[in-house]
Amino acid sequence: MKNYLVKDPWHIIEDKFHPEYNRISESIFSIGNGHMGMRGNFEESYSGKTLQGTYMAGVYYPDKTIVGWWKNGYPEYFAKVLNSTNWIGLEIQIDDNLLDLSNTDIQEFKRDLDMKRGLLSRSFRTLLPDGTLVVVETCRFVSLARPELGALTYSITCPHKSVKLKVKSYLDGNVHNEDANYNEFFWEHLFQKMDDDFMAVSLTTRKTDFTLCVTAAHRVLIDDRKPNSTIPVSRADHSGKGYTSRTFELTLEAGKKFTLEKYASCMTTRDHPREELEALGKVNLSREAIPGFSVLKDEHSRKWEEIWAHSDLVIDGEIAAQQGIRFNIFQLNQTYTGKDARLNIGPKGFTGEKYGGSTYWDTEAYCLPFYLGTSDPAIARNLLKYRHNHLERAIENGEKLGFTKGAALYPMVTMNGEECHNEWEITFEEIHRNGAIAYAIYNYINCTGDNSYMAEYGLDVLIGISRFWVQRATFSKAREKYVILGVTGPNEYENNVNNNWYTNRIASWCLSYTRKACIDLEKKDPEIFNEISHRLKLTEKDLESFERIGSQMYYPADEKRGIFLQQDGYLDKEDITVEDLSDEERPIHQNWSWDRILRSPFIKQADTLQGLFIFEDEFDKETIKRNFDFYEPRTVHESSLSPCVHSILAASLGYTEKAYEMYLRTARLDLDDYNNDTEDGCHTTSMSGSWMAIVIGFGGLRYQNTRLKLSPTIPGAWSGYSFKLFHLGRTLTVKVDKTEVSIGNSGSEDISILLYNKEITIPAGGLVSAALKKV
Ligand code: BGC
What we know:
Elements (H helix, E strand, L loop, with lengths): L10 E4 L7 H7 L2 E2 L3 E3 L15 E11 L12 E7 L6 E5 L2 E2 L6 E10 L4 E9 L5 E10 L6 E9 L5 E10 L14 E8 L4 E7 L5 E12 L11 E7 L2 E10 L4 E12 L8 H8 L8 H19 L1 E4 L2 H17 L26 H13 L2 H13 L1 H10 L23 H4 L5 H16 L3 H21 L1 E3 L4 E3 L17 H24 L1 H10 L4 H12 L5 E2 L4 E2 L23 H4 L2 H6 L8 H7 L6 H11 L10 H11 L3 H12 L16 H15 L3 E3 L2 E4 L9 E8 L2 E8 L2 E6 L5 E5 L2 E5 L4 E5 L4
Helix pairs in contact: 4-20, 5-6, 5-9, 5-20, 6-9, 6-10, 7-10, 9-10, 9-11, 10-11, 11-12, 11-13, 11-16, 16-18, 18-19, 18-20, 19-20
Beta-D-glucopyranose binds next to loops.
């Protein structure tokens, strides 16, 4: 765990340079706008620890699978979002010194991510090897207002000495993915060009044929004004393969400030025809189009204001918690804006390369509730449509594994609908992902009341998924029940288990929900239902099998302890808890052999408890409590997806301090580098877990057939908190303090909700307050 960042409600600040943590900071200080993003790399040369990373959403490469022993059914490749043209690059020469913070004597340093306005700034004063003092100030952003545009400003002053300054600004397409399987170069160079106003580098991906054209333009200022004949700035250009640079050279007098503004237009064939990319880039950067850095900056920051107006979550009384949740909300909005149904949310967003930038069950199980609560429903709908668009591929994926008749197995990891993951215990066995995708449909319709989704898209997906469960479950004569054998549950520290309680439960739920959705639609709109059943060849036999298998599923349990068993035989494991582990052993995945982990009782992430969180309504509090008391002490939380679920359950059980401890762990996971892995990128998909821990956990938010329920509590460390919720076309503002809950309704119609299970009506434009209760 690290503790080097300044605690501030709206900023992430590193106020002293920590070279040993630079890769961690680069992840944390990442910026993005849904279309593209980049790590918090320095613009100037840096020879210390760094991972240079610039990523374009949806531009991927099918990197050939690497495995020790090939198994039938393995996917041929793992899709990876590509590290792409570095457009921020500057090489700065001051007299005979190359500016590189690894080799200078840093007097002051500040890196600042302004989350309110979406700006990354840096300032430092440093002594160069020859003793010259240099003062640098930088600011950059990728525009939310113009998603294909990035901009930076870089100022240099040498207060005591006149110097010969050379600033080389470059575009570099010679970039590699750190996680490439065969150290291959994923791009082919198309061209590099320069003219008086612009420079451009264009690359095209091998195999997938995406073309990226990055065009850049510059503006030079001396003391914030255009240079004139008294301070001549000369220019030299250079181009090599996949590389162009423009060098500005001048004598910079003592105390004068040199500023370079650099604008980059990053366009791809995902959005434009290839032959137009270059010309469009120039249009985007033309003098008429670029009103100047500060105008663009303000335009971008206003978009952030709009986002914060409906998604901010305020915590009073604890800056660390406030900073944590804002950082999470900020990163989620940087990663996914919901404007493009072809895109999804990679576990690292634009902050690193691990997990290939692909889509996991994380989206449905974790991210969806955040977007449902904080954004227009169209955004959540796009996330759902992404899976609908991939249904054919999910059916093909099922066929590759031997399933038939339209059985859909969605991939564990995907970019375009095809499976990319190639560890058998995950690819073939971690099938609970199908359940999360089905549950997301239920969640979406329940929260938004958008019933049209079921007939338009939802039912097709549910039928495909349910057909998979029908074929994947087998009837056990011994148990006289259906069983699901050879699976990996959410807890990846166990593989090839039989009857994972969570998987069996969610499979059974999918089957019942699909059947009910069919019956409901047939009643409501027989014509549409007939069209769907005809198209999908849905028969009475299908519906009968959904009912039979759904209602006769086997669930392992231990009667004596009154708990569900994570899987058959779980209790044969050694009866020890996390308290029996020494600090040196944790995280166990970095310190133990895999074999020892598999045999141990330690649970990577919420598994049985994941099911009790989702299906809470089906169980009484005592049952949930017994399971929580049993599984929590055995859980090491070595997946970022884990603490939030424990936090939510703890809050509903009245374990407020446990809930709070787990909240802090999820919200500050990256800021404090809790799992010692932030240098690979931030845990973007688990960030919505922090929002869930507050809104669903402390706020007690639940939906009951579009009816909203709240049962707020407050952790001891906070004096209050408040959040906004999108609900059925209205925005509700929920405020909680130590004594009172108030709920405001900004809509034009009254709304009835359940507060602590009692119906209240909040008038349009009005507010209702009530005393805070102990849950
Ligand atoms: C977790 C998975 C998750 C993946 C990506 C793994 O460590 O065990 O549940 O989908 O990370 O976040």
